[in-house]
Specification:
The structure is a single chain. The chain is α+β, with helices and mostly antiparallel strands and 736 residues long. It folds into three domains: 189 residues, no CATH class; 202 residues, no CATH class; 289 residues, no CATH class. The protein contains 21 helices and 29 strands. The strands form five sheets. The chain has an eight-stranded mixed sheet with strand order 6-5-8-7-9-12-13-14, with helices on both faces. A six-stranded antiparallel sheet has the order 1-2-3-4-11-10. A six-stranded antiparallel β-barrel has the order 22-23-24-27-26-25. The chain starts with a helix and ends with a strand. This is HET-domain-containing protein.
């Protein structure tokens, strides 16, 4: 180490040593400073070998971990707490203790020797992407002759039979699970009865999957399928030596089958075409099947099923008619399956289902002694569900969302092993009896009213990726059909009639700076017309109850067979109470996480030009010459549900007016297309815009409407009506 580096390292060391661990996060300057260091591979490997356990690993644990389990730290009332204990409201809980000193080199050495807990601790650092950071800090300390190590923190989760654990930075002790580095690396541990199985020897994963399926099929009422949905036209029969296509119309009794959810990727996957149909009815060449398909067939056979459904083999890929017909059946194809097999980590069909790396740990159980009393505790990542499902490669694909929501049960295979998910429970091959606390998404559990789940569905779906842009609505049609079956509501290209006013106010979530308008695939008023994650604000009792317009009628024209799929046009007739008009000034990038300042529209108030921030749907919707007028149409307003009480005084409610920004189509008077949205606040307490004076726009916009709103609406509308139920909403415009 040269002298300049030595000086820099010494300065860093002095600051690091003095720093408060509870304020030292992964984004702190002191932690970020080590990320530019280079790790010497030979140095790391030698330290791993030198740190390997001196005594053999027995019963799955090294001597240090076994000593920890035999002398588990007693925190508050932890030693007398049972797995089914209720929280004690008379006690605070959150007691904290420190145990088990270690280094990353020691953890990796013990992992290689077979210690399950060291493997799990190392995996937590890998999952949080902090292993190299810890190791670089350790290396700096080594060169500075400091022998500081990491300690394992344990903290009671209040007075629940649950604890939180984390590895501290070398030489530092963070005392709260939500502070410092703990917020990024903490994991969970639940108390279990002393009689609980510790899985000393985990069974073969396919045997575990078979047990999950049997338990679910025979005992989970929520997961029972009605078996009355329409079958796909074709299935792959795997009962014989070679797979072949069969027509389901020939079956007297409904066949049990699996479905495969996978990412096509760029790999040239085997496809059913018109010319191959007759041949595939006789035999599908096994040597042409990619690893993912072969693995799916292997898993299906192990479960005692004779049929599977794979999209590329069961839909004629060069027939638009067959594709439209079969894609319209997705709700019943997946909903009627016995099990869905998700190749979660594979980027294409060449990678297969079984991708778990060596020395991986997805969790474990251990028998511990706390204050002389024995119990079992499990140890699992706080993000085990997301890491195994939504944060996988498949989870980023739009088609996969409905393939996850529709089946009664899914088994995810990926780089974290096998992960079971049904409407009743979740489990992993590492914790096969399931998780004691429900981590299951309500989207899969099928609980709650569909109307309240739709925004969550759209937020997840709109953030996902599609290979073919035209699939934006078809890839969600199965979920939409599910919603229609529950509610009977009219579906309108991603929106629902009963909630249409609030859903028309959808807006981009954390927009990027390069969003462009795509070729037409949905009406401009639908979020499906653009790419990127969207959201909107809920309307509920006491929240957003002021209405400035109402929808007279709405309709879409279908492109194919599916009433919930692709559309060729769509129109909304809106009766407004007031409209403002102005022009855009040169656009500016979104200045905060919510993107309020995508553009500025200039409106007139008190004979002066006033600037109002709006969010554009697409940047290329901005007229470069700013000659075309923009129409600002308020739809909803009122209390947001947030408020503030300055100096302990009476709470002041946050207010907002929201609506859409439109531009005339030029085709006929009163016809517009949507180009953006707006939220004008008063007494704002949420968002970064609070510091930018955004509070002023609410009252100022009301002034614009009072001075010019009805005259502008009359000049812009297609017709003027009278309506006793909505006497102010007289001016009718059309949005396409």
């Amino acid at each position: 180490m040269v002298s300049s580096e030595e000086k820099d390292f010494t300065e860093w060391f002095n600051e690091y040593t003095a720093a408060d661990a509870n304020k030292l996060t992964k984004n702190s300057k002191l932690i970020q400073a080590v990320n530019s260091d280079d790790l010497d591979a030979n140095f790391v490997e030698q330290h791993i070998r030198d740190s390997a356990p001196k005594s053999p690993v027995t019963k799955g644990f090294c001597a240090k971990c076994q000593d920890l389990f035999n002398n588990w730290p007693t925190l508050g009332g932890s030693s007398t707490r049972e797995h089914d204990s209720k929280p004690d409201l008379d006690q605070e809980g959150w007691d904290h203790g420190v145990a088990r000193p270690c280094s990353t080199f020691e953890l990796e050495g013990s992992t290689r020797a077979g210690c399950k807990f060291c493997t799990f601790l190392l995996q937590q650092l890998k999952d949080s992407k902090l292993l190299d950071t810890f190791r670089k800090i350790e290396t700096r300390l080594y060169h500075l002759n400091d022998s500081a190590v990491s300690f394992l923190s344990v903290q009671n989760w209040g007075t629940n039979p649950l604890q939180l654990l984390w590895l501290n930075l070398p030489g530092k002790i963070c005392t709260s699970c939500n502070s410092g580095i703990a917020a990024a690396v903490k994991f969970q541990s639940s108390f279990l009865p002393a009689s609980a199985d510790c899985y000393d020897e985990l069974p073969d994963v396919l045997d575990t999957v078979g047990n999950w399926l049997s338990t679910c099929s025979e005992g989970h009422e929520l997961c029972t399928s009605k078996d009355d949905g329409i079958l796909p036209s074709r299935l792959v029969s795997i009962a014989g030596d070679s797979p072949r296509l069969i027509l389901t119309s020939a079956y007297q009794t409904r066949p049990r089958y699996s479905t495969l959810s996978h990412s096509w990727g760029s790999h040239d996957v085997i496809k059913l075409t018109s010319k191959d149909l007759d041949a595939f009815m006789k035999v599908i060449p096994v040597d042409r099947l990619p690893p993912t398909f072969k693995d799916a067939i292997k898993i299906t056979r192990s479960l005692g099923l004779d049929h599977c459904w794979i999209d590329s083999l069961c839909i004629i890929q060069d027939s638009e008619e067959d594709w439209l017909k079969e894609s319209a059946l997705m709700s019943s194809v997946y909903g009627g399956s016995t099990i869905n097999i998700a190749a979660s980590s594979a980027v294409d069909s060449s990678q297969g289902c079984f991708m778990k790396p060596p020395d991986f740990s997805g969790g474990l159980r251990a028998r511990i002694i706390d204050g002389g009393r024995e119990r079992v505790q499990d140890f699992r990542s706080s993000e085990v569900y997301d890491l195994s499902t939504s944060k996988t490669h498949l989870g980023s694909r739009a088609w996969a969302l409905q393939e996850k929501m529709l089946p009664p049960r899914t088994i995810h295979f990926g780089d974290r092993g096998a992960f079971w998910e049904c409407r009743t429970t979740i489990a992993s091959e590492y914790l096969p009896d399931g998780f004691p606390r429900h981590l299951v998404s309500p989207l899969v559990r099928g609980r709650g009213k569909f109307e309240s789940l739709w925004r969550q569905v759209v937020m997840l779906y709109s953030a996902a990726n599609l290979t073919f842009e035209k699939d934006k609505l078809p890839a969600l049609s199965g979920v939409a059909r599910l919603g229609f079956n529950e509610t009977g509501d009219q579906y309108l290209a991603g929106l629902w009639r009963r909630q249409i006013l609030e859903q028309l106010c959808w807006r981009r979530w954390k927009p990027k700076t390069n969003w462009k308008r795509l070729p037409w695939r949905a009406p401009s008023w639908s979020w499906a017309s653009i790419d990127g994650k969207v959201t909107w604000r809920y309307v509920q009792e006491g929240i957003m109850e002021d209405k400035y317009a109402h929808v007279l009628d709405a309709s879409t024209t279908l492109y194919g067979h599916d009433p919930f799929g692709q559309v060729s046009s769509g129109v909304i007739r809106l009766a407004c109470s007031a409209v403002a008009t102005g022009f855009l000034v040169p656009s500016m990038p979104a200045s905060n996480s919510e993107g309020e300042t995508g553009a500025i529209v200039v409106l007139r108030a008190s004979n002066e030009e006033q600037q109002f921030p709006i969010q554009m749907d697409c940047l290329d919707d901005i007229d470069s010459e700013n000659k075309k007028p923009i129409y600002i149409v308020p739809l909803l307003g009122g209390k947001t549900g947030s408020g503030m009480a300055p100096h302990g005084e009476v709470i002041i409610d946050e207010l907002v007016i929201q609506g859409v920004a439109l531009r005339g189509t030029g085709v006929r008077k009163g016809e517009f297309s949507r180009i953006g949205t707006f939220d004008f606040y008063k007494d704002r307490v949420t968002g970064a815009a609070t510091e930018r004076g955004f509070n002023e726009y609410y009252d100022l916009f009301l002034q614009v409407l009072e001075e010019h709103g009805t005259a502008t609406a009359e000049a812009a509308c297609a017709e003027i009506i009278s309506n006793s139920e909505h006497p102010k909403d007289r001016y009718v415009i059309t949005i396409v």
